[in-house]
Amino acid sequence: MSLWDELLRMLGWGEKPQERRERPRQERPSPLVSFFEQALAETVRKRPLTRRMGRAALVSLFERGRVAPGTILSGRVEYVGDTFAKVASGVTRAVVFLGEMADHHVSNPSEVLFKGQTVDFIVIERSTRNLDEWVASLVAVGEARSREALAKLNEGDVISGTVAEIKDKGVVVDCESFHAWVPISELAWRWLDHPAEVVRLGQSVQAKVLRKEEPEGWLHDKRARRAKAVASVRACTDPPISPEVEVAMSCLPFKLWAVARKPRSCDPVVSYVLEELDRGADREVILANTGLPANTLTRILETLEEAGLARNNELTKRGRRIAEAIQWARELNADPIRGLFASAAHPRSQFLPADVVDESRDYPRDWPRPPYNRQAEDTFARATDDELPEFLLQRIVGDDKRGLLQTLQSDERLRVFLRRDGSRPWKAAWVPVPEHWVLAGLWSAFQAVGSRPYRPADTTERCRDFLMVRLRGRPSSSGRLPEKHQRWLDRYGTEPHGEEDVGLSPEALERLERARRAYREQRRNNAGKPDELTVFFEPATATYWRIRDPSRVKVRDRKGSSFPDFPNLEGLAEDLGHDVIGWSPESWCMVKV
Predict the structure, then answer these.
(1) Residue 115 — φ and ψ, nearest 5°?
(2) Are 195 and 171 contacting, i.e. CB atoms less than 8 angstroms apart?
(3) 26-31 — which CB contacts under 8 Å span 24+ positions?
(4) 506-525 and 483-492 helices cross at what angle (nearest 10)?
(5) What's the mean pLDDT when you consider all of the chain?
(6) Half-sphere exposure (CA, 13 Å, Cβ side) for 91?
(7) Which of 295, 327, 389, 557 has the fewest C-beta atoms under 10 angstroms from its C-beta?
């Protein structure tokens, strides 16, 4: 008996149910064989099964077992109808409807397919009308192959491709087997108004994969067929190095201070007696050094004994430890570590040595207080022990005191904290900060006027506080009328009034009418033009700005009796679109963006 005959016998075809029940239990078909039997029965549509038909049915069954939703097959078009087409690959047959034939609208399948054409298709699901057929798609093949290629990618991989499409918000890069989307912010380190400023169609580019976007349900939902890699072109290049500019900042003077952790009963007098006992002084020596009454010293010694710091006029182990801590704190406080905290400066420039004010140029006394962040100052002033920023120690603590400070911080007997230093609440200092950091803050809410400075693409790290000067200028077309006309209008008004005009000579009436005509002509010429123009001057970068987004800017006037020099005022007129008679500084302003 051949293998095929044996398989047909195991499946039990040709047997009646009674005969099957009479077979030995070990020869009865298993549930899996019963499944195959049912599937074969569906395949032959319950027709009498011959040996030849059984072989064909088995081949069809195993072919069907290798096909699953999402499988890509290559086959031929067998039939082209009015609303669908049928394709076949081996024994696998599928129907393709109009919506799955092409990316564009198809009215009739014959527009894109013909009988005998070789096509690639992807099976989507079983047909509900015919169990021998699948529902397939031609247009989803590209999506499936893109997802296969994306599965091999990892974040951080560098890919190569050509620019296939340029859009307003980014570019599409063709990487042969998949597409990558590069947002406009990831094309260059500087700000771009349009991607065409740095790329062109067909240009070869390299990009680093940031993430993959693979929406689910793409077999059945066309809207989810947009798997792609999101990449960055600028990540493959070094970021530009920002030059530094000196910006005036208001700094909080501080010093590091240490105190010993001791019982509340240890006031300064008790602490002094504790230190005297640590130095080995007896009762008589302490009385002579302090001048305290004997009964007062007795109560102090009792207090130390109650706190467990002394016994029989001698210090305990705990008392000696506290006395040692008091000595260490005094050593640090005798020559404290001093510095300045520029709360509104760049994070890497916020902590400055105390002598930086003496070394930098003087800040004009008649200028207002420079920018600062009160909330950051309050938070900083509350820092103690482990809350002290590590980079503070690196910036302002010298090597000679760094070891002592680290020892004090690690000692549980001491508390190290910040204290305001001196009587002045703030000091002005010129702090070096990255120029790109300053410009990023200005560009976030302003529009440059005149010369266009560098605009960083990333504005998440930016300056938020500025001290600027507000200037006002009057357009030349909105100036006053000639004096000879203005006198007549001031006296008789711009509109005719019968009572006021009565009694004027014909010559005076003619002059008044000429003045009123000049006034009406000036109003027609100035229609839609501003009466005044306002710009803001930023002294550190020597640039001029106009507010672009008022909702993102808070402007508060500040008093100041002098102003800095204003360079290149002549170049503002062309950018503003108006001829300006003259610019005049109006006020200092504290600007927060």
Answers:
(1) -65, 135
(2) yes
(3) none
(4) 100
(5) 81
(6) 16
(7) 295
Element (H, E) at 569: none
Q: Kindly tell me if the per-residue pLDDT of 190 is higher than 60.
A: yes
Of the CA atoms within 13 Å of residue 56, those in its CB half-sphere come to: 9
Question: What confidence tens digit (pLDDT) does each residue in 492-539 have?
Answer: 777 776 555 666 778 888 888 888 887 777 666 655 555 568 899 999
The encoded tokens of residue 74 equal: 């290559």
Amino acid at 144: A
Domains annotated on the chain, with CATH: 3-64 (no CATH), 67-139 (2.40.50.140), 144-236 (2.40.50.140), 247-431 (no CATH), 432-476+531-592 (no CATH), 481-525 (no CATH)
What angle (nearest 5°) sits at the alpha carbon of residue 72, between those of residues 71 and 73?
115
CA distance 120 to 210: 31
Partners of 75 in the β-ladder: 119
Measured CA to CA in angstroms, residue 121 lies from 47, 93, 273, 443, 510 at distances of 31, 11, 95, 51, 91
Q: Are strands 580-592 and 554-558 parallel, antiparallel or unpaired?
A: antiparallel
Structure tokens at 194: 């349009």
pLDDT of residue 3: 45
d(CA 108, CA 86): 14
**Torsion angles phi and psi, residue 338, rounded to 5:** -115, 155
Q: For residue 283, which phi and psi values (nearest 5 degrees)?
A: -65, -45
**DSSP conformation letters of 340-390:** EEETTS-GGGSEEETTHHHHSPPPPTTSPPPP--HHHHHHHHT-BGGGS-H
pLDDT tens digits, one per residue of 65-81: 567 888 999 999 999 99
**What type of residue sits at position 403?**
G
Strands (E), 19-102: 72-80, 84-89, 92-97
Question: Which parts of 494-542 are beta strand (E)?
Answer: 533-538
Tokens representing 113 are 């397919």
Encoded amino acid at 274, one letter: L
List Cβ neighbours of 496 (8 Å cut-off, separation of 6 or more). 516
Q: Which of 127, 113, 59 is nearest to 82 (CA)?
A: 113
Pairing of strands 228-232, 179-183: parallel
Bigger pLDDT: 372 or 16?
372
- Joined tokens for residue 269: 């007098």
> What CA–CA distance (Å, rounded) separates 103 from 142?
11
Beta strands in 106-203 (DSSP E): 118-126, 133-137, 158-167, 170-174, 179-183
Give strand pairing partners of 121.
73
Cβ pair 468, 580 in contact under 8 A: no
- Of 303, 248, 230, the residue nearest 469 (C-alpha): 248
> Which of 217, 272, 257 lies closest to 421, judged by CA?
257
Amino acid at 110: S
The residue count of the chain comes to: 593
The one-letter amino acid at 571 = G
Residue corresponding to tokens 């070869």: 204
